[in-house]
Amino acid sequence: MRGDCPLRLLHVSSTPGPPEEGQPEVTLVQVHAALSGLSASLEREHERAKHREEIIDRLHAAMRSALDDPDTNAKLVGLGITVRGTSPEDFGRAIGEQYALYRKVIQANNIKAD
């Protein structure tokens, strides 16, 4: 067992490194590349999430503007629709509650899709 393997950590220097265990040698460049790739992937996911929020905000603003229009509001009310505006967060919670309710109904009645 060699104690001078460059990949051994100081606090576990008696533990063999990858080359000593018959594994391919891993270089610092490879480790850095892997960590950089992971970091870039996380950064892209953060940007996607931020972009989704921006889209939701724009859609909400457009919907709010349409619902605030007296003519649109009157047409919807004329169709028997109760017009009420909520935040995207409130809407998400309401949808979640509906999913939970129907999940219980479906499971209680053993309903299956054909």
Structure, briefly:
The protein is 62% helix and 0% strand. By secondary structure, it is an all-alpha fold. The chain has a domain at 84-114.
Q: What is this structure's SSE topology?
A:
Elements: H1 28-68, H2 70-78, H3 88-108
- Kindly, what is the distance between the CA atoms of the first and last residues, rounded to a whole number of angstroms? 63 Å
Number of strands: 0
Largest sheet descriptor: none
Mean pLDDT: 78
- Strand percentage lies at under 5%
Q: Tally the helices: what do you get?
A: 3
Calculate Rg over CA atoms.
Answer: 28 Å
Plain-language structure description:
The protein is mostly helical and 114 residues long. The chain has a domain at 84-114. Helices cover 62% and strands 0% of the residues. The chain is built from three helices and no strands. The chain has helices at residues 28-68, 70-78, 88-108.
Descriptive tags:
single chain; 114 residues; mainly alpha; 0% strand; elongated; disordered N terminus
